[in-house]
């Protein structure tokens, strides 16, 4: 592959990542603005968000030329899609376990971000911050009173999405400037 082609791929990856990061941050902001959504509505919204995230993550994995984080990101994409279908097709039943599902998702995402940091040569500081925030949010949700946890769930998801989005934007800007 020529340097020109590699530079174009880095610019494209950077641009796609910036757009994806902005969409993730905007979703987080929207969720923070409307935390009084019913739990059933939140489950459907979360299912759609996880589905979109999973699909975009898998598209990015198959589009990427190198092996950097492909396995971890591919696994995360598949987990997001499976979780979205489990939640979407049983929103009422999922509403009761939503706090546990989301807490587990935060912890898994955080651990996977920490595990993938070594493979990424750029943006590690935001990746570490995003990972730690997600692990803390997940553990906190597990330890909370279930009623309080349900009330805080919208805010916790919003916080997680905003940190994730800023992490994606940061990495993408760094990748874009490598070209």
From TrEMBL:
GO CC annotations on file: plasma membrane
Domain of life according to the entry: Bacteria
Keyword set includes Transmembrane: yes
Keywords, comma-separated and alphabetical: Membrane, Transmembrane, Transmembrane helix
Residues annotated as transmembrane: 16-34, 40-59, 95-115, 127-147, 153-174
Keyword Transport in record: no
Protein name as it appears in the record: Acid-resistance membrane protein
Organism of provenance: Bombella intestini
């Amino acid at each position: 592959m020529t340097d020109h082609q590699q530079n174009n791929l880095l610019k494209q990856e950077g641009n796609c990542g910036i757009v994806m990061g902005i969409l993730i941050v905007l979703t987080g902001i929207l969720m923070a603005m409307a935390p009084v959504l019913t739990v059933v509505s939140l489950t459907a919204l979360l299912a759609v968000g996880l589905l979109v995230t999973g699909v975009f993550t898998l598209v990015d994995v198959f589009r990427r030329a190198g092996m950097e984080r492909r396995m971890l990101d591919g696994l995360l994409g598949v987990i997001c899609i499976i979780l979205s279908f489990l939640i979407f097709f049983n929103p009422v039943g999922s509403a009761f376990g939503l706090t546990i599902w989301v807490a587990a998702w935060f912890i898994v995402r955080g651990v996977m971000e920490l595990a993938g940091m070594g493979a990424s040569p750029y943006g590690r500081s935001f990746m570490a911050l995003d990972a730690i925030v997600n692990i803390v949010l997940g553990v906190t949700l597990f330890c909370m009173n279930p009623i309080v946890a349900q009330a805080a769930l919208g805010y916790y998801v919003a916080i997680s999405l905003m940190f994730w989005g800023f992490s994606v934007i940061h990495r993408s800007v760094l990748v874009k400037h490598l070209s």
